From TrEMBL:
SUPFAM superfamilies: Cell-division inhibitor MinC, C-terminal domain. This is Probable septum site-determining protein MinC. It comes from Alicyclobacillus vulcanalis. Signal peptide: none annotated. Residues 115-203 form the Septum formation inhibitor MinC C-terminal domain.
C-alpha cells in the first residue's frame, strides 16, 4: 500500500506512506517546511483518508530524512501522530540507519530512541544515543543517554545526558522540574517547574536552563562547534 497526499502547486507531496509487513512507514520530505509536513500529515491521518488507518494497533516507522530537527519540531510532528490511538512508534530518524541500527551501526553514528509511557519512580533507563520519552519521568526515576534527552511530558526524576563525556548534550522537557540534571560530569538541580518548555545545557563548565524558544540559535552554534563531527 502506498498513500500520498495530493500535490500542491506541482511540488512533491511532503508525506508518503508505505505499508509493509512490519507496519506503516511515513516518509517525510526532508526539504519541506516542518509546518507544511505537519499540515499534510494531519489531513492524511485525520481527514477523509484517516479511515484507512482505523483498526488495531499498528507499528509505524517515521523517516524524516537527513534533516536536523529541533525539539520543538520533533514534538510538533510527534503530536500529530499522537492523534491516532492505534499508532505505535517503533523507529524515528533516517530509516536506513534506524531500522538496522543494532546490526550495522558504524562507529560514530548517532542513534535516536523512542520510549513510550511512564518512567516509574526508581526505574533506571539507559540509551546509547539520543532518546525521546513520550510520557512522564517520575521522581527518583533515572534516565541516562550518551546523547540528548527529550521528555515529551513532565521531567521529575534524574536525567543524565552525555554520559560518555559529550558536553554538548542537552536535557529538554515540556515541564521541567527534575530532581537532578547531569550533563557529562557536571551536576546541577533545576529551578521550580514552569509551564514553558525548557532545556538544560553547558556553558563552559556551568549548567544553564533556558526556554525552548532559544534552542534553535544555540543549536546552530553547537553544530558549528564540531558536535556533528563528534557524533
Amino acid at each position: 500500500m502506498i498513500l500520498e497526499s495530493e500535490p500542491l502547486m506541482d511540488h512533491r507531496p511532503p508525506v508518503t506512506v508505505k505499508g509493509t509487513r512490519e507496519g506503516l512507514t511515513f516518509l517525510l520530505d526532508e526539504r519541506a517546511d516542518v509546518e507544511r509536513v505537519c499540515t499534510y500529515l494531519e489531513t492524511l491521518i485525520t481527514g477523509e483518508t484517516g479511515k484507512l488507518f482505523e483498526g488495531p494497533t499498528v507499528d509505524i516507522y517515521v523517516d524524516y530524512g537527513k534533516r536536523s530537527l529541533t525539539p520543538q519540531e520533533t514534538w510538533r510532528i510527534l503530536d500529530v501522530f499522537r492523534k491516532r490511538d492505534n499508532f505505535l512508534l517503533r523507529a524515528w530518524g533516517h530509516l536506513p540507519e534506524a531500522r538496522d541500527a543494532a546490526s550495522r551501526r558504524q562507529p560514530g553514528t548517532r542513534i535516536q530512541h523512542i520510549y513510550h509511557g511512564l518512567v516509574r519512580s526508581g526505574q533506571p533507563l539507559s540509551f546509547d544515543g539520543d532518546v525521546v520519552i513520550i510520557g512522564d519521568v517520575n521522581p527518583s526515576a533515572v534516565v541516562e543517554a550518551t546523547g540528548d534527552i527529550y521528555v515529551f511530558g513532565r521531567l521529575l526524576g534524574i536525567a543524565h545526558a552525555g554520559v560518555a563525556g559529550d558536553e554538548t548534550a542537552v536535557v529538554a522537557a515540556a515541564e521541567f522540574a527534575p530532581m537532578q540534571i547531569r550533563i557529562a560530569d557536571v551536576v546541577s538541580r533545576a529551578p521550580q517547574m514552569r509551564a514553558t518548555m525548557e532545556y538544560a545545557y553547558l556553558d563552559g563548565r556551568e549548567m544553564r536552563v533556558a526556554e525552548m524558544k532559544y534552542f534553535l540559535p544555540w543549536h546552530k552554534l553547537r553544530k558549528r562547534s564540531g558536535r556533528e563531527e563528534r557524533r
